[in-house]
Amino acid sequence: MVDYNFSRMQLNYLGLAVPFFIFFIALEYYYSRRKGKNFYQYAESVANLNVGIAERLLDVFTTGLFFFVFDYLHKNWALFDIKVNWWTWLLLFLATDLVWYWYHRLAHEINAFWAVHVVHHQSEDFNYTVSARITVFQALVRSMFWSVLPLIGFPAVMISTLLLIHGLYPFFIHTQALGKWGWLEKILVTPTHHGIHHASNPEYLDKNYGDVLIIWDKLFGTFAEERRDVKIVYGLTKPLGSHSFLWQHFHFILEIYLNFKHARGFRARWKVLFGKPDDLDPRYRSVLERHLLNLAPGKSPQPTTAIRQYVTGQTIFSLSLLFVTILFEHHLSRMQLVLFSLFIVISLINSGAILDQRRWIFYLEYARMVLVILAIGLFYPNSWTISVLLAVVVLITWYFRPIKRYYFQLLYAGSGH
């Protein structure tokens, strides 16, 4: 059972990041509507938030692991014993930002790293929801780069604290609402600089990798100014054409797999893994799209009013459950934490599939219902509750087909699906 004694609750205040980010997303959306700007597309925003929800959720299971690795490396392999004072904090900030630059640059230049970073660049919008496009796979690779910091001699507590602060800044530069920042453009990565980084225009590809300071790009030759004669187009050079949660995460990994499978010789396979994305055969992407997506070429299905209402409700509920799960994680049993997490992940897969108007989503709905029943049984473990829940499962299973038919009539009516 969950401990409801609020006077002695140990809360995970990182959960407050959820309403914090939602507030600024809503503020930017309000500003864009008031100014008549088209910063937000519905399906794009949902897909962006889905990726971010998954990453925040999985952080519950991985954040402690990253701290443990940093602490172990520092205690056993550190070259120096760096003490905490104002100038070592400054040094750590500069080192963190420099490591980020090289992680980010290599994540664009090496296929194995681009496979986990590509998700961040898939959106054809550029707004605060795009900043949520970080996956747990990207966090793992990024932490591998940051492992150099404890090896130098920075304590794990310093690193973890600075990464929390350092990670906040990039959220605010994923926007078109703040304009240019005057003389700060010469020092900091600003929304203008980072918007160029997210562009798919040939003039802007592989530019402006910095996270907080733009000086690294100027130092290493990857800086680009915004050009008035070039209208920025955001996203990938070949758009996904799908809002599928699974396709967004795994399409490039599958492309690497097919290229690796058909490559001849060690050198060719090495190039598949550690060469540049341009080195891959683009035909395999088309093969995967044909077999796994089965979407009409160049045409994405448009969400009906019913789809919008249902997906919006799912997204709000997923965000709310994420907030509760993170905030009260220390007061949830392991089984409750797993059930909540599975429900959220299945909901994210489900809403993306609904936007693509898939027919197999009803099986996900059934799986979510089973998880809800299990969760109720865990919170209220008595014979009467279990009997009622079993009766509900039997009834829904018995009337599975008519419920499924009615479900699609409500959801996809007028969509051609």
- Major β-sheet annotation: none
Percent of sequence in beta strands = under 5%
- What structural category characterises the helix and strand content? mainly alpha
Average pLDDT score: 92
What is the H/E order? HHHHHHHHHHHHHHHHHH
The backbone outline, from C-alpha atoms, is globular
Q: Could you tell me the number of beta strands?
A: 0
The proportion of residues forming helix, as a percent range, comes to 55-70%
| Unreliably modeled segments | none
Q: Give the terminus-to-terminus CA distance.
A: 43 Å
The radius of gyration is 23 Å
Helix count equals 18
Fold and architecture overview:
The structure is a single chain. This protein has about 425 residues and is mostly helical. It is about 60% helix and about 0% strand. It has 18 helices and no strands. Helix 4 runs antiparallel to helix 11, helix 11 crosses helix 13 (about 285-295) and helix 14 (about 305-325) packs antiparallel against helix 15 (about 335-355).
